[in-house]
Amino acid sequence: MKTSIIVLTHNQLTYTKKCIESIRKYTSLDYELIIVDNASQDGTVDYLKKQSDLLVIFNKENVGFAKGNNQAMRIVSGDVVVFLNNDVVVTAGWLEPLINTLFSSKKIAMTGPVTNNDNVNGLQKIQVDYNQDTLEGISEFSKQYCAKHVHMSKRVLRLVGFALACKKEVLNTIGLFDESFGIGNYEDDDLCLRALIKGYELRIVKDSFVHHFGRITFKESKINYSHLMIKNKTKFNKKWGFDVHKYLHPHSNLIAIMPKSISRVLDINCGMGALAIELINQIECKVVGIEKNDQVIRFAQKQLSQVLHHDVETIEISEDTLGKYDCIICNDILQHLKDPWTIVKQLSGLLHKDGYLIILIHNVNHLEVMTELLQGYFSYKNVGPLNKQHLRFFTKTTIPTLFPPEMLIEKIIPIHMHVPDKIMEFVDEIVELGQKYGLKTNDLFDDITTNQFLIKARKIVDI
């Protein structure tokens, strides 16, 4: 089996040399290396012309990430295509795990390695202890990390294009990169979504490590990265009909609080299935999803075995229609409902005894709300505790009113936000002033710096 590795260059000769040299040194499988140069002017062109083992396409202008990779796709001869940024350095044994995982199932369309860089998918980033500037210690780190995670991978909804392995036959089915994204950003996300909507899976391969310096071309080309991101994000969301990145990653706090001995889970407001997929990765449980958004549910239905297209306030919540569960998740949904109290009561009836209800809910006793009220405002927004779609509002004190007597709250975990020092001083003064006048403000700082509460409640009586 042959692999076609595609690398785009636009100046940054030093990084390009490191990338190519690492590929030559650490790639033992049969491969071809295709370079597409986007009008470099720093000696990159002369360097590439002297390399006899490369297939090179020279462009007279910077045609961008999508078009450059698509040009290379016209001449690839491999069964596997790996898209690499020129500011990466591969490590020993990097390619074999990517390919082995890629062909471990017909369902898998793409695989990606773990990496060091903060700018990529949070699920692909790992903590590293080598020098990320000089790369001193990278070989030993990679060797040890990959040895601890041999044959391990996890299913996700997003892989980043800095190092992306794809089956060529899948690319022939879903199409190549969308060139309307121009210079770069979001074309890799778009490619992933086209794979997902066809029912394919994406996997992070934990025993493949690739170092990524990150955004080198953008930085040195003086491209307005923030403007480009906003422009392409708008284009991306318009193409797919919803704010995609809101649904791509599971909430890490929800995962951490989940009981481990569960076999059947109901995920209300399941989105594209990110949380359900991570639960399956970690616990191997059966997850049933409920989602009402027409655009979002298309992805969940392709990724999960059972997804119900319903509004939780209109569906019949009974054991006959939905069955029984070990755990039910209400992820950022209750504040959107007309009568969350009744819904929670009905959901508790679907739990086995000692089953859990996990709730993530916004805190209205929040700094953003307090500072608005102090200035005479209550401004609804698109996100946060003042989301214009919220119908009900809760604080740490009023959250317990949601639960019927058969449910015992075991944990209420605050999810804090960062607070600037000046605001901290302001809050401290309010606390002191409140105490002076007999108000219960001892816990005010913790409460108003809490963006959301995570609640874990257990059913102690089977009614």
UniProtKB/TrEMBL annotation:
Keyword Acyltransferase part of the UniProt annotation: no
Transferase recorded as keyword: yes
Matching InterPro entries: Glyco_trans_2-like (IPR001173), Nucleotide-diphossugar_trans (IPR029044), SAM-dependent_MTases_sf (IPR029063)
Bilayer-spanning residue ranges: none
Cross-referenced CDD domains: AdoMet_MTases, GT_2_like_c
Record GO terms (molecular function): transferase activity
Keywords for this protein: Transferase
Record's protein name: Glycosyltransferase
Top-level taxonomy: Bacteria, Bacillati, Bacillota, Bacilli, Bacillales
